Protein backbone atom coordinates (compact mmCIF):
# COMPACT_ATOMS: atom_id res chain seq x y z
CA UNK A 1 0.00 0.00 0.00
CA UNK A 2 2.77 2.48 0.88
CA UNK A 3 4.46 1.82 -2.47
CA UNK A 4 1.23 2.75 -4.27
CA UNK A 5 0.92 5.94 -2.22
CA UNK A 6 4.49 6.97 -2.93
CA UNK A 7 4.07 6.23 -6.63
CA UNK A 8 0.88 8.29 -6.66
CA UNK A 9 2.52 11.33 -5.07
CA UNK A 10 5.59 10.94 -7.27
CA UNK A 11 4.18 13.07 -10.08
CA UNK A 12 4.16 16.86 -10.34
CA UNK A 13 0.58 17.17 -11.57
CA UNK A 14 -0.70 14.84 -8.86
CA UNK A 15 1.12 16.91 -6.24
CA UNK A 16 -0.51 20.04 -7.67
CA UNK A 17 -3.92 18.33 -7.42
CA UNK A 18 -3.24 17.36 -3.80
CA UNK A 19 -2.14 20.89 -3.01
CA UNK A 20 -5.47 22.27 -4.26
CA UNK A 21 -7.50 19.55 -2.55
CA UNK A 22 -5.79 20.30 0.76
CA UNK A 23 -7.40 23.74 0.46
CA UNK A 24 -10.89 22.66 -0.62
CA UNK A 25 -12.83 19.82 -2.23
CA UNK A 26 -13.11 20.53 -5.93
CA UNK A 27 -14.91 19.31 -9.02
CA UNK A 28 -13.02 17.71 -11.90
CA UNK A 29 -13.79 20.69 -14.14
CA UNK A 30 -12.37 23.07 -11.51
CA UNK A 31 -9.17 21.05 -11.19
CA UNK A 32 -8.62 20.79 -14.93
CA UNK A 33 -9.25 24.53 -15.37
CA UNK A 34 -7.15 25.71 -12.45
CA UNK A 35 -4.25 23.46 -13.42
CA UNK A 36 -4.69 24.01 -17.16
CA UNK A 37 -4.71 20.30 -17.96
CA UNK A 38 -7.05 18.30 -20.17
CA UNK A 39 -10.04 16.43 -18.78
CA UNK A 40 -8.50 13.07 -19.69
CA UNK A 41 -5.20 14.03 -18.02
CA UNK A 42 -7.03 15.21 -14.88
CA UNK A 43 -9.08 12.00 -14.77
CA UNK A 44 -6.00 9.82 -15.16
CA UNK A 45 -4.23 11.58 -12.27
CA UNK A 46 -7.35 11.56 -10.09
CA UNK A 47 -7.83 7.82 -10.69
CA UNK A 48 -4.23 7.15 -9.65
CA UNK A 49 -4.69 9.16 -6.42
CA UNK A 50 -8.03 7.49 -5.74
CA UNK A 51 -6.64 3.99 -6.37
CA UNK A 52 -3.91 4.70 -3.81
CA UNK A 53 -6.58 5.69 -1.27
CA UNK A 54 -5.37 9.29 -1.02
CA UNK A 55 -8.52 10.95 -2.32
CA UNK A 56 -12.20 10.08 -2.54
CA UNK A 57 -14.99 11.32 -4.73
CA UNK A 58 -18.68 12.04 -4.47
CA UNK A 59 -21.28 13.09 -6.97
CA UNK A 60 -23.51 16.15 -6.65
CA UNK A 61 -25.95 16.57 -9.54
CA UNK A 62 -23.83 16.16 -12.69
CA UNK A 63 -20.56 17.15 -10.98
CA UNK A 64 -18.01 14.79 -9.45
CA UNK A 65 -16.10 16.31 -6.53
CA UNK A 66 -12.84 15.14 -5.01
CA UNK A 67 -11.36 15.59 -1.54
CA UNK A 68 -8.53 14.20 0.52
CA UNK A 69 -9.65 10.97 2.18
CA UNK A 70 -10.13 11.21 5.95
CA UNK A 71 -8.86 7.64 6.19
CA UNK A 72 -5.66 8.62 4.37
CA UNK A 73 -5.15 11.57 6.72
CA UNK A 74 -5.71 9.36 9.79
CA UNK A 75 -3.57 6.43 8.63
CA UNK A 76 -0.75 8.50 7.11
CA UNK A 77 -0.80 11.63 9.24
CA UNK A 78 2.97 12.13 9.13
CA UNK A 79 3.04 11.97 5.33
CA UNK A 80 -0.01 14.23 5.08
CA UNK A 81 1.54 16.77 7.46
CA UNK A 82 4.85 16.61 5.60
CA UNK A 83 3.17 17.24 2.25
CA UNK A 84 1.22 20.16 3.71
CA UNK A 85 4.39 21.66 5.13
CA UNK A 86 6.13 21.48 1.75
CA UNK A 87 3.38 23.26 -0.14
CA UNK A 88 3.69 27.01 -0.27
CA UNK A 89 1.48 29.75 -1.67
CA UNK A 90 1.95 29.50 -5.40
CA UNK A 91 0.15 30.45 -8.59
CA UNK A 92 -2.19 27.41 -8.35
CA UNK A 93 -3.36 28.41 -4.88
CA UNK A 94 -3.56 32.09 -5.79
CA UNK A 95 -5.73 31.19 -8.79
CA UNK A 96 -7.87 28.92 -6.57
CA UNK A 97 -8.45 31.74 -4.07
CA UNK A 98 -9.40 34.13 -6.87
CA UNK A 99 -11.78 31.52 -8.28
CA UNK A 100 -13.38 30.86 -4.89
CA UNK A 101 -13.91 34.56 -4.24
CA UNK A 102 -15.40 35.13 -7.70
CA UNK A 103 -18.94 34.58 -8.95
CA UNK A 104 -17.74 31.69 -11.15
CA UNK A 105 -18.66 28.05 -10.63
CA UNK A 106 -18.66 24.79 -12.59
CA UNK A 107 -21.46 26.02 -14.84
CA UNK A 108 -19.36 28.98 -15.96
CA UNK A 109 -16.36 26.70 -16.50
CA UNK A 110 -18.42 24.30 -18.60
CA UNK A 111 -19.84 27.12 -20.70
CA UNK A 112 -16.70 29.21 -21.23
CA UNK A 113 -13.60 27.94 -19.46
CA UNK A 114 -11.24 30.17 -21.44
CA UNK A 115 -13.11 33.35 -20.49
CA UNK A 116 -13.15 32.42 -16.79
CA UNK A 117 -9.43 31.63 -16.81
CA UNK A 118 -8.65 34.85 -18.65
CA UNK A 119 -10.51 36.91 -16.05
CA UNK A 120 -8.89 35.06 -13.13
CA UNK A 121 -5.43 35.17 -14.66
CA UNK A 122 -5.68 38.90 -15.34
CA UNK A 123 -6.59 39.39 -11.68
CA UNK A 124 -3.46 37.44 -10.68
CA UNK A 125 -1.25 39.72 -12.75
CA UNK A 126 -2.58 42.91 -11.15
Automatic annotation (TrEMBL):
One of its GO terms (molecular function) is DNA binding. InterPro entries: ArsR-like_HTH (IPR011991), HTH_ArsR_DNA-bd_dom (IPR001845), HTH_MetalResp_TranReg (IPR051081), WH-like_DNA-bd_sf (IPR036388), WH_DNA-bd_sf (IPR036390). It comes from the Bacteria. Signal peptide: none annotated. It holds the Pfam family HTH_5. Residues 1-94 form the HTH arsR-type domain. The keyword Transcription regulation applies. SUPFAM superfamilies: Winged helix' DNA-binding domain. SMART domains: HTH_ARSR. The keyword Transcription applies. Keywords: DNA-binding, Transcription, Transcription regulation. This is ArsR family transcriptional regulator.
Amino acid sequence: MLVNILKAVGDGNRLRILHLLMEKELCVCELESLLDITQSNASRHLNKLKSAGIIESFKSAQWVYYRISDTFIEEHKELYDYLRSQFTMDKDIELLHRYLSSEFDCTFLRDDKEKVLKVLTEQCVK
